[in-house]
Design goal:
Chain lengths: ~120, ~270
């Protein structure tokens, strides 16, 4: 059963992403409201994939990605960035830090599910 | 002598008979040969006609199988067409499901609280995350002044959003008529003119307009509106209006209740002094 960590400060988006992810058979969603909360969840649960927003209070998504990549215990976990920042330089920056994929909002549910399935299969 | 003559005569007679027998045998042999030849011919003919009959049977079978093959090919083509139809219908249903999920989440969130500022925050979240707007403002009608006043904004300061009289300009007309406005030209959305939104949605409770959502710019990656966006706009027009209205009433009544409670507490405390 893959555990997917959804890191998003907006309850609306958290619910929407969780709704979409639950359509992947046997998947289990764990929610975090910011980067710090996500690190806590990472230390207590076995996470198979992270979906993270960029703009969040306390710790943003880019900082979270760099910390995840810097930790040997988590560095193999795929990270998909889901954000309103749609500019090419934002995408490049996120990918250079270590994000595996970049999905601008508003998200297309099928696209999100396809991307998650791709990284879970790897 | 007579005996000799009789013996010769009998010998001749026997020879004659023997010759006749030989001739008869030869004739029989010839006849036999002819019959054998005839039998061989007949056998050959029978075999030939048997082969032809078999070929005919095979040809008929081939024709039947070709007919079956063609009918199977036709059925296969029909099934393939049906499959294509099912596939496209499946995609449509999936899309519809996703849209319904978006609408459900938006509606669920809008009615999840009675706190006015939280409702405003949820409306902002829906417009940013689900519709993909970058600059927009929420204006509510002040019943005392008959003017629309900005109460919340994203991508711009609340003070930059305009105060508009009902019926005045694009925003005022939307508030007056209660009909949404969608600009056909999304290219010119770069420059911010607070009085000229690209989208203006009335917030309505039945036919009563309580305010508008005025959108000025979409996110870079958003180049137009999809069907679900229009559904979301409709949902916002109704559900956001009721959520905003009821939460505002609730927050106001809470405040009043707190004030009244404070007075009551004061009154209760006075006799003790």
């Amino acid at each position: 059963m893959p555990n997917i960590l959804v890191v998003e400060d907006s309850p609306t988006m958290r619910q929407l992403i969780s709704f979409a992810i639950k359509r992947i058979p046997n998947s289990h969603v764990i929610e975090a409201t910011d980067g710090v909360d996500a690190l806590k969840k990472l230390s207590s649960e076995k996470i198979d994939l992270i979906l993270a927003d960029i703009n969040m209070p306390v710790m943003d998504g880019l900082k979270l990605v760099s910390l995840v990549r810097g930790n040997p215990a988590y560095k193999a976990i795929p990270v998909i960035i889901v954000t309103t920042e749609g500019a090419e330089e934002d995408r490049k920056r996120a990918l250079s830090i270590g994000a595996n994929a970049y999905l601008p909002k508003p998200i297309q549910t099928q696209e999100l599910i396809k991307l998650v399935n791709t990284y879970l299969a790897r | 002598m007579e005996k000799e003559t009789g013996f010769v005569g009998k010998a001749d007679e026997f020879l004659q008979m023997f010759k006749k027998g030989e001739e008869f045998t030869k004739e029989l042999l010839k006849e036999n040969e002819k019959l054998r030849y005839r039998i061989a011919q007949m056998e050959e003919s029978i075999q030939r006609s048997g082969d032809e009959a078999r070929i005919k049977v095979y040809e008929d079978r081939i024709a039947l199988m070709e007919e079956e093959l063609n009918s199977l090919k036709e059925r296969f083509r029909q099934v393939e067409e049906e499959n294509k139809d099912f596939a496209s219908k499946y995609i449509e249903v999936e899309e519809e499901n996703n849209n319904l999920a978006n609408l459900y989440v938006a509606s669920y969130q809008l009615h999840s609280t009675l706190d006015f500022s939280e409702v405003l925050r949820i409306v902002l979240e829906i417009i940013i995350n689900l519709i993909g707007a970058e600059k927009f403002a929420i204006l509510l009608i002040d019943e005392k002044t008959n003017e629309m006043v900005p109460v919340s904004a994203e991508g711009m300061a609340v003070s930059d959003a305009p105060k508009v009289k009902i019926g005045q300009g694009r925003i005022g007309s939307v508030a007056k008529e209660g009909e949404s406005f969608f600009s056909e030209d999304l290219a010119g959305m770069g420059e911010l003119n607070p009085l000229e939104p690209i989208v203006c949605i009335p917030l309505k409770i039945k036919e009563h307009v309580i305010g508008v959502i005025s959108i000025y710019k979409l996110l870079t990656q958003k180049d137009g509106f999809t069907n679900v966006d229009y559904e979301l706009f409709n949902l916002l027009a109704g559900h956001a209006a009721t959520a905003i209205f009821s939460s505002r009433l609730y927050t106001q009544s809470e405040r009043k209740l707190t004030t009244i409670q404070s007075f009551l507490d004061l009154l209760k405390e006075k006799p003790r002094k």
